[in-house]
User: Fold this.
Amino acid sequence: MGRALWRRLRELLNPRQLDRDSIDEMTHHVEMVVARKLGEGLDDLEARRQARLEVGSVESAREHVAEERTGFALDQRMRELAYAVRVLRRSPGLTLLSIATMAVGIGVSGILFALVNGIVLQPLPYPEPEQLVRIFDVNRQSGIERTGAASGNVAAWRQRAAAFEGIAGYYSMGRTVSLADGAEAVITAQVSRDFFDLLRVPPMLGRTFTPEETERADFNSAAAPTGPDPVVILSHGFWVGRFGADPNAIGQTVMLERRPFKVVGVMPAGFTAPERGVALWIPWHLSIESPRDQHYLGAIARVAPGISLAQASEQLGAVAGDLGGLYPDTNAGWGVELSPLAVETVGGAAAVLWVLLAAVGLVLLVACANVALLTLMRGLDRQDEVAVRIALGASSRRLIREFLLESVVLSLAGGALGAVITIAGLRWLPAITTDLPRMNEVALDVRSVLFIAAVTILTALLSGLPQAWRRTRITAITGLTSATLRTTGGRGTHRLRDAIVIAQVALAVILMAGSGLLVRSFLELRSTAPGFDPRGVLVAPIFLDNLQYNSGEKTRTYYRTLFERLAAIPGVTSVGGATTVPTSPLGPDFERPVWPCERASDGAARLQAAVRMITPGYIETLGLQLVEGRAIDTRDSPKAPPVLMISRTLAASLWPGQSAVGKQLVVDYSTAGTYPYEVVGVIGDLRFRGPRSEPLSEIYLPHAQRSYLILNVVVKAGGDPRRLIPSVREAMRTVDAQVPAQGMYALEDLLGATYARDRQAMLTLLMFAGAAILLAVLSIYGVLSQRVRERSREIAVRIALGADTSAVIGWVARSGLRLIAAGVAAGLAIAWVASGALEAMLFGVTPTDPPTVIAVVIGVTVIGLIAILAPSWRATRIDPVEILRR
Amino acid sequence: MAIEKLDLLVLKALALAPLHGYGVGQRIEQMSGGVFRITLGALYPALQRLERSGLVKGSWSVSENNRRARYYALTAAGRRRLTTQQKAWERTAAAMLRVLHGEGH
Assistant:
């Protein structure tokens, strides 16, 4: 019994030794039979033939013995696996290269799939998310597409439109929270009734706002929360950070804008609607009497069950039409636009992510092709061995299995490593991407894991099939003949190999064309003059609270004092401020109706203009162009006659062909007064939201005449403006330590951030294209090298017959160039068809940009030539005497 | 059934003296009057199976042509198994014969 167990263990642990032993035994058996035959007087050859007939071949018997072994099925798979591993270990460099290629390909596709899955495919993290929509005000008559909703309108819609379960308005902005040791600016969202209910997210602690709490939360203006007994809801992050996750936080107070707000609820982790980074929510009462002409609210709604988006749009459109009839002054011409919340949340990121996922798919294909070629070529090098094994009775099914197993082993190793890369990448990605929505929802979920598994299997099949296909065509005869003749391969293999290389070049060309377009587009974005000079400018957003700074005079004094201190910082050349600075995300951005004084009765002359309050020095600091007239300066004091500057776009629409300076422009400031201002200057057009944005109709009011608590202070100095940050912070502290210093930015960075996504997409695609072309070049090199090796006799004959170096080089180079040319042609054709997918991401470039095409062709050819050179050179070094003697 | 028959033949071949694989094949052929010719692909799996079951014991030795060869010997368990199997087989064979010759009805 002990022996039997021992035997079993040996079979498990050392099958190879047993295998050798049984071969030895059986060989002995055959020898004995042969010896007997020889004794019967047969010659050696005939004796061996008869022996074989009598007892069969050792090779096939060996398989029977192995099959018999314990756990036969498993054992055989293990043997084949072990064989595959052994074969792979014979060329460790190529094997590692293949595994690394696959790992990176699978890993990066995993990352991109997880992104697409989490950001685009997964529904929003709210119950029945498909019912959620965003609502925008539009005024097609005045050419206004999609602007914010007016608060009075949101209240009116809520009352009148039955197609919705709820409609809520919100507005988020930075506010000041007082702390024991100073103050901090946080993003707060003021939200109207229904906000939490329609999202259907219950609080983690406490409750959401009651209708009464909302009712009494009146606001004189968006910047100044008023009303008795104010209440606040905390985000999970704020609760953890500022309350130490205190379960008894409910009922405590938060000093917001130096006023105590009672905590009534804490939202669950991950909930920051309506935008990333919201720390606090405060209630906001909207009534039909709220302004209907200030379009700055965000509006979301939940469509009632069973009602389609189109039906809801139609009904709300009719309501908007009614409002236009009821309140022609404010609502004539205004309609609505509805869009699924999911679409609005993800925005342009979806297109970019899909393109990148497709691109990494192409890279993966190239990688598969590489591994397939490597396997194929390894197979060719082993053709002798294979032919012998076939002759000895190894079944062709088994051989195919073996070859497939090679690529399965490679792919599994690559897939495992790839999964590691995906996990690491997803962990690291949030640190480097700032412009992707829903990043907190991206995770390696079941779907992503299945994707990685599927990709791994697909990779194994794609990279193994060409080889397996070749194997089915090998017979002992062709194998052995070609082995003796030393011209391996055969036409079929050559064609297969060439096709794979051409496909690789084509895929690389597609990726290069795509990334080329993005590069061109990015350069175009960067070279587009934004209309301001961001160099050396630091942007410091400052939010004053309305309790301490409850009068225009106090606000003006604060900023005047601060500007004096800032101007005294060594190296600072100018200082200014504006409520909203180009490309800065912080600060109020709203529009007011304006019209020329002389056309007050003409409804068509009313335009919406974006309002900025600016201080003296702002125009110089930002390097804005003064087209006409003068800049706002110290003359424009609170007591001086009201003046403003306007953008060239507005001037051109209001007074085409005339000088705007000296004209009177009425600004409808609603409760704060509607009266004419004198236009003193015209500012050159600027692209306020970055190079992709169009110049706007804008008015610039003197901050002194209409002071505002929020100001983006801009400071210009030579060199990197970020080094000014400590001095600016210090200056702020000396003026009022209770005013929080916010994140400060170099204006250049803010401008860059407007096309950060373009930059990231471009760099990623460039990387993919680089990887693809590198792999394709390796293949060209490999295939040509092998071709030279195979044809060495032919080349030797040619050299012996007098072919000179250039003829030999020409022969190799031509076959290489043919592959490249075919690949480039195929790639360009596909790229030409597919380039439409990139259209949405391009700026200032057409998808069929000729310079890009030319650059790609030249680039691929030059890189390809490098791959051709080495094998060509090796061909000329062939020594005919040595080769032909073999 | 077929496998069991071969196992029995091998055990029987080894009943007299230890033999190497070729010897087992020769002995079976000889005992069967040349009817049973065993190929490598049948014999060696059977030997392996019997050895694993502890019915035979293999050991390396030197053969008559001065070469390393593996000799198989019956173990005590193998001998017992041979006896029981032989009896069972004899019963079966006798029954088969009776059926085929139409006896005993």
